[in-house]
Amino acid sequence: MTAPGARLAAVFDVLGPLYRRGVRAVEQEGGMPVGVRAVLDALAGCGAATVPTVPTLARTLSLSRQFVQRSVDDAAERGWVRTRENPAHRRSVLVELTDAGVEVLSDVRDGERRELGALEEGLDPDDLDACLRVLRALSTRLADHPM
After folding, report:
1. Is 10 buried (19+), middle (13-18) or exposed (0-12) by CB count in 10 A?
2. What is the spatial distance between Cα 10 and Cα 124, in angstroms, rounded to a whole number?
3. Which InterPro entries does the UniProt record give (predicted)?
4. What is the DSSP-derived secondary structure letter of residue 62?
5. Domain-by-domain residue ranges, the chain?
6. Residue 46 contacts by C-beta under 8 Å, 6 or more apart in sequence?
7. pLDDT tens, position by position, 10-46
8. CA gap 69, 39 in Å, rounded
9. 100 touches 32 (CB < 8 A)
10. For residue 137, how many other CB atoms are within 10 A of its CB?
11. What's the rounded Cα separation, in Å, for the pair 69 and 36?
12. How far, CA to CA in Å, does 131 sit from each of 5, 38, 56, 83, 138?
């Protein structure tokens, strides 16, 4: 019999190094720091109707406000995001993707999909679907009950 929590501990033991290798690959392949990538992804997911602030992005990404601010500043220097005054709050600016940001994110995603397509070869699609279901359930549970 397996001790309670041992299977999930093993999952996290695999996920940590996997995540770090993935982060390095993203940064090397696209020349984009992972924090900037996270901000661009979050902004792309907001849609045109929602223009978030740095604190909102930080909550969405479960990252510190300071880290997100540095990532927004980095993305702004590269011309991938722009900030503008927030009429609802003097110090918390609104952040939005620029056309260049949309384009570079699309290019990075396309490159990743090509690379991931090669890694996906030989893996059972049903296993991948099960993996996604489990990881999404864990993500939801952790959001509702942080350790």
Report:
1. exposed
2. 21
3. HTH_MarR-typ, MarR/SlyA-like, WH-like_DNA-bd_sf, WH_DNA-bd_sf
4. T
5. 15-110
6. 52
7. 998 999 899 888 878 777 766 788 899 999 999 998 8
8. 10
9. no
10. 10
11. 10
12. 17, 22, 29, 37, 11
Distance, CA of 111 to chain centre: 16
The two structure tokens encoding residue 141:
């549970």
In which residue are the tokens 């059972």 written?
124
pTM, two decimals, is: 0.79
* Residues in CB range of 35: below 8 A, 6 or more apart: 63, 67, 68, 70, 71, 74
Q: Return the half-sphere exposure (C-beta side, CA atoms, 13 A cut-off) of residue 117.
A: 6
Strand, coil or helix: what is 76?
helix
How do residues 58-113 score in pLDDT, each as one tens digit?
998 989 999 999 999 999 999 999 998 888 877 888 999 999 999 999 998 888 88
Question: What DSSP character marks residue 3?
Answer: P
| Spatial separation of the C-alpha atoms in residues 64 and 58, rounded to whole Å | 6
